[in-house]
Design brief:
six-stranded antiparallel sheet, 9% helix, globular
């Protein structure tokens, strides 16, 4: 399966940085961080060895309930996403007929995508250093893009 190399490389990596971009886009950085500089010369968010990007429609689950997600109050997002920090990746998988992603962490939390609008699941798993490329969904199937 296309996700296997990503799963194998992500297992054991910590969540190093988490941030929310435009709207409710969630970015989760895994592994060692590298400084990123914006075009204007200011520091941007650091980038990890791997990045999970979920454009919208995401949630963070505890073992038996939902901690919160993209439909939660924006004021709650910092507290919700900060709980991911330091969690070690224990499992990476896809689920559903249209592949959504789920990443399980050592602290009992799970990160899930779940598109609620028409179109395709809107997430990507990017490899910055291992040359694996970018894993995403297109036409209802997992696709891999390498530079």
């Amino acid at each position: 399966m296309l996700i296997d190399p990503f799963r194998n490389a992500l297992l054991g990596k910590p969540v190093s940085h988490v941030w929310v971009g435009y709207g409710s886009a969630l970015f989760v950085e895994f592994g060692s961080l590298t400084t990123r500089v914006r075009r204007d010369g200011t520091d941007g968010n650091p980038v990890g060895e791997f990045t999970l990007m979920i454009e919208w429609s995401w949630r963070i689950e505890k073992p038996r309930s939902i901690l919160g997600g993209s439909c939660s109050s924006e004021r709650r997002w910092p507290k919700i996403i900060s709980k991911l920090l330091g969690g070690i990746v224990q499992e990476v998988d896809t689920f559903g007929a249209l592949p959504e992603i789920q990443i399980s962490l050592s602290n009992g939390l799970r990160i899930l995508s779940f598109m609620t609008d028409s179109g395709q699941p809107d997430w990507a798993l990017l490899s910055e250093r291992d040359g694996l490329g970018t894993l995403f969904v297109k036409s209802g199937r997992l696709c891999l893009e390498k530079e």
